[in-house]
TrEMBL record:
InterPro entries: COQ10_START, ORF3, START-like_dom_sf. It holds the Pfam family Polyketide_cyc. This is Coenzyme Q-binding protein COQ10 START domain-containing protein. It comes from Arthrobacter ginkgonis. Residues 11-150 form the Coenzyme Q-binding protein COQ10 START domain. PANTHER family: POLYKETIDE CYCLASE/DEHYDRASE AND LIPID TRANSPORT SUPERFAMILY PROTEIN, POLYKETIDE CYCLASE_DEHYDRASE AND LIPID TRANSPORT SUPERFAMILY PROTEIN. It comes from the Bacteria.
């Protein structure tokens, strides 16, 4: 059984990060190898992915969902496994600096109070059935791919946040 745990900090609050992550039809924009994701019902999505030059399909079933906090799912088919995404609020470095500089008294002299970022932690496990899957897990290729996908998600969300703020200001 292969296991991965990777994290990334995103410059949005957990509710926003969670909302963007649950837009399954957008997954091909930031998850490498994902061709499409289609919502079947409230807890099931159908995935088409390209893996090692082959197209594969499978269904994923959400086992537990806590908006803004957690998504836990199990997949069946050729790419069976399970995973959890945790969305945790963390204080941004600039907010931590402002708090250290001005104290926790609330006296910020016009500086905004502490804002939050989100630490997204992905925990994945699956049976590595093929030789390529076994080597991918053993040599860290899968872990690097998950880390890269999380960074792409961060870029995806933060760009849309900036675009939305720009549009709202016009």
């Amino acid at each position: 059984m292969a296991h991965i745990q990777e994290s990334v900090e995103v410059n949005v609050v957990p509710a926003v990060a969670y909302e963007y992550w649950t837009r399954y039809d957008a997954f091909p924009e930031f998850l490498e190898g994902v061709v499409s994701v289609t919502r079947v019902d409230d807890t099931t999505t159908h995935w088409v992915v390209a893996v090692h030059g082959e197209q594969r399909e499978f269904d994923t079933h959400v086992i537990e969902r806590r908006p803004g906090e957690l998504i836990h799912w199990r997949s069946d088919g050729a790419l069976g496994g399970e995973g959890t995404l945790l969305f945790e609020p963390v204080q941004s470095r600039s907010a931590a600096f402002r708090e250290a500089l001005h104290g926790a008294t609330g006296e910020h002299g016009g500086v905004a109070p502490a804002d939050t970022h989100t630490r997204i932690t992905a925990r994945l496990s699956w049976e590595d059935k093929t030789r390529a899957e076994h080597f991918g897990a053993a040599f860290g290729t899968d872990s690097r791919k998950v880390k890269k996908d999380l960074r792409h998600f961060r870029e995806y969300v933060e760009k849309r946040r900036v675009d939305a703020a720009t549009t709202d200001a016009v």
